[in-house]
């Protein structure tokens, strides 16, 4: 008799679940049949479509006024944060139309940046390189140099070197890197012989770029180290980047004329790969982070990285892995990559 009661109770529970599920489905169908569900949220729907268009057509935003296009492109991945905000507002508004519209920018963001959030690091690599803007006002240059050397890199590029601090870096890196060259405020340290070192004129009036040939075991590679001029965001002037843009154009001309088939560019370009103003450089080289990176690889500011303005770009070698290193005394994170010849 007890078994019969148990079975009856179980059956009633299952029946109740079915009735509950049926009521929920019926309520959902009634809501969808309500004309108001589709009429509400017109403003949210328009905002969602405009967001999608901005992410797709960002290169058509003019740079004539305050370099607005470059400013948008610098922080373009962060526009994805508007998607969940719009989705929540659509739910609060109980608008099916707005919810469907929000799917459009969501899919655009995934298509544009979804591949960057995954870890594409691969094994191997013939040469490991590190690039770091050490910050001229770094309170701990000794510690920064030690952290960079501890990375195990074969080649290290440092930019924003304060002349008085160069001996500190030279001494701290001497044991791991017997070959080095410093030109102006940029420098290159290497485990392998460095030759043909010289400054690169990027139209600044002082030296913030250099080129050298590193004789790696797999063959020579031309290594460029560059620190393009800083950009500023001002209330009236907007995104002031004209000097950086001119320097980027000149650097692109020099790299285009480089006779060595293998080229690596290391440094702080003060711009992201999306920024059209860097096309003279980025159009002819590959980003190691984009090709083989771990996540977005944001490098600045170190306290809360929001953009990857420090770059490792290559031509004639294959990116194997790319990542950001732990914070040092600088306001930038060091970045690293392994490449295959």
TrEMBL record:
Family annotation (Pfam families): Exo_endo_phos
Chain intervals for the UniProt region annotation (Disordered): 1-22
Keyword Hydrolase: yes
Keywords for this protein: Endonuclease, Exonuclease, Hydrolase, Membrane, Nuclease, Transmembrane, Transmembrane helix
Parts of the chain that traverse the membrane: 37-55, 75-92, 99-117
Keyword Membrane carried by entry: yes
UniProt GO molecular function: endonuclease activity; exonuclease activity
Location of the Endonuclease/exonuclease/phosphatase domain: 130-332
InterPro entries given in the database record: Endo/exonu/phosph_ase_sf, Endo/exonuclease/phosphatase
Protein name: Endonuclease/Exonuclease/phosphatase family protein
Organism: Streptomyces rubrolavendulae
